[in-house]
Structure formats: structure tokens, C-alpha cells
Amino acid sequence: MLPPPIDQGTVLIIGATEGIGRELSRQLSRRVRTLVLVDRRAGRLEPLRDELLARNPTLGVLVHQCDICDPHQVDALLAFLEAHFVRVDVLVNNAAVGNRGLYAEERWGQVEETLQANVWAPALLTHRLLGPMLQRGRGGVLNIGSGAAQLFLPGSATFAATQRFLDGFTEALRLEVEDRGIAVTRVAPGPLWEAGVEDWEGGVAPFFHISLARCAREALVGFERGAPLVYPGFGHRWVMRLLPLLPRRLKRSLGRLALRGLERETLLSPQAPGLAAGRQVLLAGEPSPA
Ligand SMILES: NC(=O)c1ccc[n+]([C@@H]2O[C@H](COP(=O)([O-])OP(=O)(O)OC[C@H]3O[C@@H](n4cnc5c(N)ncnc54)[C@H](OP(=O)(O)O)[C@@H]3O)[C@@H](O)[C@H]2O)c1
Fold first, then answer.
1. Mind listing the pLDDT tens digit for each residue in 66-83?
2. Residue 163 and residue 173: Cα distance in Å, rounded?
């Protein structure tokens, strides 16, 4: 398999201004010819563009505001790429929505948004951008998923299921295009931390945490080596490798424990929205893989 055309290429990053997407943008800004930064909130794209240009004044940067859950905005993004004659060499499907709440008590709108951001949008964008890559015989798709794909996660039924979609999608797509010059990789991180931000509430041992910067670095190394799947971080990687060896029965027991933990957490913290009250906690990243 050819390595993805990162050096001097054009890389499109969805969800570029926060978290892993921002770290990928920073690390790629030293190497690529052009970055196309896409995110949904106004006012965050331009500061990132200016930061990256300050680091590398020869970098080409295009920014576009787009909510990938909105089909019209995705059409507008594709039209924007066409209008600017952008030839996307590498697509990074990074933006995702995670939520916590008992499925029956979730708002349907929240379930729908999770499905659209985590399933519909990466599928559509890949479909639209893969054809031209295949015509050129070079390209890459980097799907940022989650270790949650391997877990039975009560309280995150929709999120965990969307991660299974990304797993199956990435593996099948890779087999279809690996001999045609296209690199396809899924990254499945565990708990991450950002320097200066102490917002992790998952109760996971620090051994499993890695920084966003390291996650992005390991993602890129794996992608360029042609790895089908990257589990960033030593501790997380070993847990993820051992999980498939567990019988489903045992995984269900772990899921029950996770549910008890979630209920306790909700009951003990007066600030935490109650599961029983049907309110949901929007997560920046993924739920606790306890
Ligand atoms: N952080 C973790 O611990 C962790 C662990 C495992 C896996 N992951 C995975 O890594 C990826 C990135 O996670 P992250 O923690 O870096 O996320 P993040 O900090 O929330 O950043 C994601 C970016 O994508 C944007 N975004 C979300 N929905 C969007 C939409 N519909 N349209 C356009 N942009 C949208 C977000 O905007 P808003 O700020 O407006 O939401 C944000 O700027 C996700 O796929 C996640 O599942 C993260």
C-alpha cells in the first residue's frame, strides 16, 4: 500500500478547531501544502488559521464553516471545494458527537445528530471525495473513531454503535482500495487529556490517559505506515488488544458494572444531570470505558 500523500498534499480536516482535530492541524501544518479546516462554530476557524500561518507562512489554508449534520451545509462545503479548485488528497473524518443517557430517555434529535455526525457525514464525504482520489491513483482517508467500538456501553448506546459502523466501514473500504493507491486507517483512541484542561470525569486510571498531541502523532505515524487500525497510547492499546479475547458474556458483565458506575456518579453528584430525569450529558470525547 502506498503511504498517504501528506507531504506537499492537500488535507481536509473535519472538526479541525478543537481536540484531536486541532492537534492534527498543527502537526500537519509543517508538512502539507494546503490545509482545509472545517468546523461548525463561527469564530474559531480564523484564529487557528492565523496560528498555523504564523508557524508556517508558506502554508495554504482554507477555512469553511459547516455543520456536517446538515445536508445543505455539506453540499455547500463540496461546492466550496469545487469553487476553490481544491483537490483533496487526504480526508480526515474527525468530528463526532458523543452523548450519555439512557436510550429511551434521549431526545430523538440527539440520537439523530449522533447518527448524522458519526455515520452519515463520514460516509457521504468519503463517497464524494474518494472517486477523484481513485482517478489520480493516490489518496488517503483517516477516520478518527473510538475504543468504544469494542465495548458494550450502556448510557452510550448510539455513540458506541456508530463507532462499530466506522470500524466495519473502514476495514471494508480499505480492502476495496488498498491496491489502488488509497490509504485507509481508523484511529480508536481511549481517554485523552489536553494540557491545562482538567475536565476528564470518567474515573479511568491515569495510566490510560495520553495527551491530544501524542494521540495525533501516533495517529499520523500509523496512517503513514499503512496501519489499518491505530490504538494510541501504550495502556489503552493493550486493553484494546485483549478485549476481543473476552467472551461476550464477560463484556456484558463489564457493561453492567459501567451502568452501575454511571448511576452512582449521577446520584452522587448534585450537579450531574440525572439519568432518571432523562437529561443528557454531552461529552467532549468518548464515555468512560470502565
Ligand atoms: N477526546 C477524547 O477523549 C476521545 C477519545 C476517543 C475518541 N475520540 C474521538 O476523537 C474525535 C475527536 O474528538 P475530540 O475529543 O477531539 O472532539 P472535540 O474536542 O469535541 O472536537 C471536535 C470538533 O469537531 C466539531 N464538531 C462536532 N460536531 C460537528 C459537526 N456536526 N459539524 C462540524 N464540526 C463538528 C466540534 O465542534 P463543537 O465544539 O461545536 O462541538 C469540535 O470543534 C471524535 O471522533 C471522538 O469520538 C475522542
1. 999 999 999 999 999 999
2. 15
Q: What is the Å distance from ligand 1's center to 41 Cα?
A: 12
Q: Does 98 contact ligand 1 (Cβ within 6 A)?
A: yes
Over residues 113-123, the pLDDT tens digits come to: 999 999 999 99
**For domain 10-283, which CATH number applies: 3.40.50.720, 3.50.50.60, 1.10.1040.10, 3.30.360.10?**
3.40.50.720
Name the β-bridge partners of 193.
Answer: 211
Residue 67 Cβ contacting ligand 1 at under 6 Å: yes
Q: Whose alpha carbon is nearest atom 20 of ligand 1?
A: 284
Q: What is the model's pTM?
A: 0.91
C-beta of 37 in contact with ligand 1 (< 6 A): no
Judged against a pLDDT cut of 50, whether residue 277 lies above it is answered with no
